[in-house]
Amino acid sequence: MKSAVGKSGRWPLTGRDGELAEALAALVDRSVRGVVLSGAAGAGKTRLAEECLALMAGRGFVVAQATASAAAGSVPLGAVAHLLPAGVDLSDPVAGFAAVAASLRRAGSRWVVLLDDLHLLDGTSAVLLRQLMDTGVVRLLATVRTGEPIRDAVHALMYGDAVRRIDIAAFDLATTDEVLQAALGASLSRRAVFELFRASGGNALYLRELALEAVNCGALRVVGEVWELVGELPTSRRLAEVIHTRLEHLGEHERSVLDRIAVGGSLSVAELCRLVPAGTVDRLKSAGLVEIGEERRRTSVRLAHPLYGEVLRGALPTVRRRALLAAEADRIVEHGARRRADALKIASYWLSATGTADPALLLQAAGLARHSHDYPQVVTLLQALSAQEMTVVTRVLLGDAYFQMGCWEDAERTLAEAAPLARGDGEVLGVVMTRVDNLLWSKADLSAALAANTQALQRVTSEAASHLLRINEGYIYVAKGRFTEGLARLKVLEEDIEHVQGDINPWLRGALMKALGLSLVAKTQQAAMWALRAYEAHMAVDEEALVSHPAVQKLPWVLALCEGGQLAAATREAEDTYYQLAAFSSVVRVWLLVLSARAQWLAGHTATARRWYAEAIALGRKVNNTMVLRAGLNGLAACAAVQGDIKAATEAVFELNGLPNALGFLSEGELQLGPAWLAAAQGDQALARDLLREGAASARRTGHLTGESLLLTDIARLGAPGEVAERLHEIAAQGDGGTLLPARAAFATALACGDPRRLRDAALQLEETGSDLIAAEAFAATAHALRRTGPSQAAADADDCSAAALRRCQGARTPLLATSAAPVPLTEREREIAVAAAIGTPSRTIAASLTLSVRTVNNHLQRIYAKLGVTSRRELADALGLKRNP
User: How far apart are CA 447 and CA 438, in angstroms?
Assistant: First the structure.
């Protein structure tokens, strides 16, 4: 996988369709004389203008281009001299300008002139262009940098009824993703997109330079199927030069203010006004270098772009930087250090300036950093303590930070050292909670996690602590996919956190896992109630919580929405929550990737699901997490198989089968989805059904009812609806009101009996849940059933509904869709043989999988050929809309 552009290549114009269309429409409007593209430096105005100019040339306009500059602006007509006809006498401006207009008319009746950086244009050129516009000779297309001083003559070019102004805003997150995919030729991980967006601020120029430098230095590289950020984002030399160009004209006081803000973050306006002459901050604001805003009843100044701080800090000599840090720390102390974050600032500044700080201050600062979810900062602060200064509390804090960063071995070492040193129930609980998390989510070690919890039970002395550890045991069992056992232990969990005595962390963990478990045993309404209750409680007590970010409590909420039949809402919630966690680089976000991908798979949006599974795999490799790898590879295999990418699906299944068992909170049974859909894509639906039966039985043993429903539904989709319909209705009856399970049961029953009315009703139910691919199959089966009695408008309508749902499924194709699309109805046996033969499966292999003779298979094929009017397997594949396997 290679990027679409080289180091200096031009990026494709992406994410500006609306602005481009608006500009083109204005330029061909007879009432419009000019179009001005206005935006910040680096917003992409010139790139958009050049694209627009090229399109206007393609429409028959005569085009020309000029660029204004500070140097040319000091010379009359300096920017447009090359556009003026030779021999024109401009000593008399009135006659000379008229001669220019006449000459241009002779050269062409329709002119579009692009003037880049219009704000730098000299007055004489501006007057000339205004006259050419007013006489209809020229349509002006110009770019203007916002915040720049503008001459009066230029101002006249930019405003008025005949001039259309179009603001070019910074990219938002979604557009940043679109631009990067187009430029790099493949999907990026959501974290990579997020970090590039955050660093660039949506500025097109900064985004391009950051991305290219990251690719060139290897910080952004392909991991599996996605571009992943594997290191810190570098700042390219060219980008630093661009930013330095904006700073080089500054005076001593302006530069001093910027250096202080770059080192210390936002600073009070009142404080800065005492340090520098009046007007300094205003000049910086007018230049677009700083912003002024309110921060908790204080008017503060901050840098206008995050990259300015990085470039400024990089340019500071070490001694100067350390002096500024020390001075800022002293200033905060002198003002009483009254703000909550002041201890963190003082400790961080002194540590950076001198390499040391007061131990008590370091510990206080680490606590503040932890509750800001800045885990790398926690590690930096605590590593400055000596071994003698490390307590059980500091070791737990450090172990938790390592865990959140995915440094499993460092976490286990730190926590194992803390365990025997713990004194009192509070310290014992603090150690075991964090250690259990690390054991469960890194090595998937159920026995080690239970052993650690049992040892803690033997050491605590109060009933309250024992109660919390029994809750923790339930947490462990649900986390490892043993839902029945886990939920039984979590029955003792208090309804509300206010009823908890002592440590609140076990309750937060127990509520999280109870909500997850309830979703998976089909109690989705109860799960949603617990998930929201836990999230609200976590938000209220986040200061005291030694559990991940409150957004982690949204995991069961996403799952409850998904299993309850609100797939669109589940995917939106998963995406929003993911970015909350990505901002803090918590490794826990990987499970949101898995759940988001799973929701997209259930919806049938296979390309999107595949991208998120690929990102989960990349992160799983980075932190060496087998559970994540198994879930990701399984999902990617299923998506690739349904897309007809047999090679990718085969490779994923091969790697999946080579991994050791590592149970996660999704049951082992669902790990049959990838192999089963690969078998189906290879034409062996019988093997696919066998794999799905095995998975459904495994899910049933652990009480994973929603997983069992999913797997049984796929058995129905792959040719055996009558076998599973009754059990699907039993599962639906055990649920508490979600729409997905009943819709699946209705679909299997309708498919088994072939009743077109029931099939259509099931299709509508599935469509309501957001299950687009299965809804498309149900509508297709409806049309197939209606065609048995001959062509009808109802069959055509059902086909239209199937096509509409399928358009949302990103190129997915399934055996049921293929055979339902056959112009003449086929029997169930003929369907299975037709699909297998169409994709290139030999008759001998088909016969073996169906326990038939080769002769019987070939006889069926002849009847299929006759029904469909084809004479070969290749024509059969075309008739069914299938891709032949290589």
Answer: 13
